[in-house]
Amino acid sequence: MRSPNEEPPAGSAAGAEPAGTSPRARPGQRPPRRRALMIAGGTAFVLGAAALLLPAPYVLESPGPTFNTIGEIGDSPLITIEGEQTYSTSGELALTTVYVSGGPNGAVNMGEVVGAWLDPQDAVLPVDFVYPPGTTRGEIQEGNAEAMTSSQESAVAAALDELGIPFTEEISVAGIMEGAPAEGVLETGDIIVSVDGNPVTSVESLRESLNATGGDAAGITVRRDGEEQTLEVTPSLAESGAYQVGAYLSIDFTFPFEVAIALENVGGASAGMMFALGIIDKLTPGELTEGHRFAGTGTIDADGQVGPIGGIEQKMVGAAESGAEFFLAPVANCDDVTGNIPDGLEVVSVSTLEEALTAVKTLASGSGAGDLARCP
């Protein structure tokens, strides 16, 4: 043993570690390398967490609630009909919805985006894919409200037309396309009365009359400032193969009785088909669904044509989660339906209100369902 005053052996230094070993930290200290790694890791964690809170240029779509069109909202019927006899209903003819967040509705952060990416029920879309640049929240709300009102009126018209109940339509000019045949001839506010003497009682009758011209000049009679006058317009052939004059149209309906639809905080036109089915069920004897639970989605026009909508994958999930047995989907949405149908939900594709009505009757009866159209 050496005494405390003894010098260390030559070639070594006081406090030095034996050869081949790593430096040791003093008691209470972390090794410099470990400390650096911990600082770097902590910094990365903080930066990563902060990044997840940054606004992200995406829109998130997730399954929303369903609303039974032949049921009630609170203590009031969703559809109320006054001035015409109605009949009891059962089961459900539910419209479906989608929760939309992000974009003008209020930015989402990257944490929410990552969560939606990991959830197969949600959809993540670039903002510019959903909303034109510069769109404001107010414009979205106004547009959704207008679309909802228009879809309700079209649903009433389609339902009454399907039931053979007469009503009137007034077609007016809402605007003129630049460079169109109607420019300088028709004016905003003109009410279209006839084409070449053929009465215009609906958009479909106007289309038929214009196509019948074969591109020749047509005499379009309009009511302007209370007086009728006939104007000459030569329709042009559109890419769709139909003849058009290039006027935006507005439709005013006059129904023989009042139909009111009470649904707040839901916008857009995608509930049109289900509104129409609900109205038909209330106006016809018997229970259309026979107690079964149907859900669906699709726009509708006054002629009963069913159009495509967005977010159908989320709407099918919402329908399944609400207990729906059957789902009515627009034919034009079949690409999004195929491969995304939730377990236990039977989906039928339709292109008209007549097809949708037939599908409900067939599925409710339990016979002949195999003959209904499905998405391939």
Largest sheet: 6 strands, mixed
> Architecture of the largest domain, according to CATH?
2-Layer Sandwich
- Number of individual domains: 2
Query: What class would the helix/strand composition place it in?
Result: alpha+beta
Share of residues in strands: 25-35%
Helix content: 25-40%
Mean of all residue-level pLDDT scores: 87
Could you describe the 3D structure shown?
The protein folds into two domains: about 60-100 and about 135-165 and about 255-370, Ribosomal Protein S5, domain 2 (2-Layer Sandwich), CATH 3.30.230; about 170-255, PDZ domain (Pdz3 Domain), CATH 2.30.42. Helix 4 (about 135-165) packs parallel to helix 6 (about 270-285). It is of the alpha+beta class. Helices cover about 30% and strands about 25% of the residues. Residues about 1-25 have low confidence and may be disordered. The protein has a six-stranded mixed beta sheet with strand order 8-2-6-18-21-22. It has a four-stranded antiparallel beta sheet with strand order 11-10-12-13, covered by helices on one side. A two-stranded antiparallel sheet has the order 1-7.
Task: Tell me briefly what this model is.
The protein has 376 residues and is an alpha+beta fold. The protein contains nine helices and 22 strands. The protein folds into two domains: 62-99 and 136-164 and 257-371, Ribosomal Protein S5, domain 2 (2-Layer Sandwich), CATH 3.30.230; 168-254, Roll (Pdz3 Domain).
